[in-house]
Specification:
The complex is a heterodimer of chains A (321) and B (126). Chain A is of the alpha/beta class. Chain A has helices at 20-34, 42-51, 55-58, 85-97, 142-149, 220-230, 244-247, 259-268, 285-302; strands at residues 4-9, 67-71, 77-80, 104-108, 132-137, 165-170, 176-179, 182-189, 195-202, 205-210, 235-239, 273-277, 309-312, 318-320. In chain A, the strands form two sheets. In chain A, strands 6-5-4-3-2-1-14 form a seven-stranded mixed sheet. In chain A, strands 7-8-9-10-11-12-13 form a seven-stranded mixed sheet, with helices on one face. In chain A, a hairpin with a 2-residue loop joins strand 9 (195-202) and strand 10 (205-210). In chain A, helix 8 runs parallel beside helix 9 (285-302). In chain A, 45% of the residues are buried. Chain B has a single domain (2-114), classed as Transcription Regulator spoIIAA. Helix content of chain B is 44%, strand content 25%. In chain B, strands 1, 2, 3, 4, 5 and 6 form a six-stranded mixed sheet that branches. In chain B, strand 5 (78-81), helix 3 and strand 6 form a beta-alpha-beta unit. In chain B, helix 1 (25-37) runs parallel beside helix 2 and helix 4 packs antiparallel against helix 5. The longest helix of chain B is centred in the middle third of the chain and has 16 residues, at 58-73. Chain B is globular, with a radius of gyration of 13 Å. The mean pLDDT of chain B is 94. The chains are: A alpha/beta (321), B alpha/beta (126). Chains A and B meet through helix 7, helix 8 and helix 9 of A and helix 2 and helix 3 of B.
Chain lengths: 321, 126
């Protein structure tokens, strides 16, 4: 059975969007690159854009905050986090299923910092009677956080007005749960107010969602624990918000990791595919693409075993496991 | 990890040898720590000669960051010299090239931090 992971929001801290200057720069770069290519039809132009133009010019990594979908082709939906990306996911569900189909959503919360919950008031299916939303997490204040962000004067529609059936389920870290066909285990991570990573296993395939975590590779117990949690994963979604220099200096204890630590930890854990996630909002597309290329190179330099595939997440990205 | 040292007037050149990773970082930390503690304003300048280092992991870089922070607090001087191409790439990828002043050669670094040290280096028997 095919398993898919879809990224609806990949940005860290706060949503961002392309500004006028960035669009203008992309257009100018594309026009210069297209010079002399004979792209005189839409078809030729699209094919060239898809195959020849740099991703950072032809596309955007996007700006929605964290929301990732795990899709095993079941009727029930599985998500990680309710960042602003969940709005686009909700619209996708309406488009696919229509507004009248009743659905069940299983949501695993890494934590309740604003960027990870801010999409929920805009999640259309929450307003549809008959839908069921089960929100799982190791924090005991998830319900409080979701209710508070919709309380006056912050939002016009109170949480109590949502028509879907919404249930909160507290998980224990380190314990395995069978939920929506997945075996799910949470692990405590180093982040202000704590965060939790999730290891999902299904049909022999493993996805690890580890965002908002400051991994410390100089602490042996932390290395051992994280490597065991990531072990043999087919996909690791990893908070690589900062450069290593930032993460161990001015932004130490800010609760995020780097691309360098991501590679080292995945190599140690014998993971197969690393996805850089929770992109720094100050970074534009070109910068994120540069970080991705540098990460590919660091993987080559530090490799001692099998190659590790490295991707940079973007809003709308789909990965088949 | 072996770290050799050579003095040139008021500069100390520290030369680690080999691969700096989880298994060798403790040695670097202790050797470096001794010299960092005395790297004060107006005292010995430290040159980290990386000509014999062929890899440095994030843990090794963290040791360097702690050293840089400490020296900065003490208003001392610590710089890096003679990075091999791969290690230079690692410095760039990790942005440690923005943390340390990096020089192409030990001589160049000495020339930047101390005229007396450069003179001592140039007059030393090769």
């Amino acid at each position: 059975m095919a398993l898919w992971v879809t990224f609806w929001g990949t940005r860290g801290s706060i949503p961002v969007s392309l500004d006028c200057a960035s669009v203008r720069d992309k257009l100018a770069s594309a026009i210069v690159s297209a010079s002399g290519k004979g792209l005189d039809t839409q078809e030729k132009a699209r094919a060239w854009v898809d195959t020849e133009l740099d991703f950072a010019v032809s596309h955007t990594f996007g700006g929605n905050s964290a929301c990732v979908q795990l899709d095993a082709g079941e009727n029930e939906y599985v998500l990680c986090d309710l960042g602003s990306g969940v709005r686009a996911f909700g619209n996708h569900v309406f488009g696919r299923d229509g507004p009248s189909k009743k659905n069940t959503f299983h949501v695993f919360q890494s934590h309740v910092h604003w960027d990870h919950i801010m999409g929920f008031p805009f999640f259309g299916p929450a307003y549809v009677s008959g839908n069921k939303i089960r929100i799982y997490g190791c924090h005991t204040n998830i319900e409080e956080a979701l209710r508070r962000q919709q309380a006056p004067p912050s939002f016009p529609v109170p949480f109590e007005s949502l028509s879907a059936s919404i249930e909160f389920v507290t998980l224990q870290p380190g314990r395995s749960y069978d939920i929506a066909g997945w075996s799910v285990t949470a692990r405590l991570q180093n982040h202000s107010g704590d965060s939790y990573g999730y290891r999902f296993v299904r049909d022999g395939r493993i996805v690890v969602y580890s965002t908002d975590s400051e991994h410390r590779l100089d602490i042996p117990d932390e290395v051992e624990g994280a490597a065991a949690f990531f072990a043999d994963a087919d996909l690791v979604i990893f908070d690589a918000m900062y450069s290593l220099a930032e993460a161990v200096s001015v932004k130490e204890d800010w609760g995020h990791s780097s691309n360098v630590v991501a590679v080292e930890l995945c190599q140690l854990a014998n993971a197969k595919h690393l996805v850089l996630f929770h992109h720094e909002p100050a970074n534009n597309d070109e910068r994120i693409a540069q970080i991705w290329r540098e990460t590919l190179r660091y993987e080559e330099i530090s490799r001692t075993g099998q190659p590790l595939r490295v991707s940079a997440a973007y809003d709308g990205m789909e990965i088949e496991l | 990890m072996h770290v050799s040292q050579e003095r040139y007037a008021d500069a100390l050149v520290l030369t680690p040898v080999g691969r700096i990773d989880n298994s060798t970082t403790d040695g670097l930390r202790s050797d470096l720590g001794i010299h960092v503690a005395t790297c004060l304003k107006g005292s010995d300048r430290l040159i980290l000669d990386f000509s014999k280092v062929d890899y440095i992991s994030s843990v090794g870089l963290r040791v360097l960051m702690l050293a840089a922070k400490k020296v900065r607090e003490q208003e001392g001087v610590i710089v890096v010299a003679a990075l091999q191409p791969v290690v230079r790439e690692i410095f760039e990828i990790s942005r440690f090239n923005l943390v340390f002043q990096c020089f192409g050669t030990v001589r160049e670094a000495l020339g930047k931090v101390s005229a007396a040290a450069l003179a001592a280096y140039d007059s030393a028997p090769t």
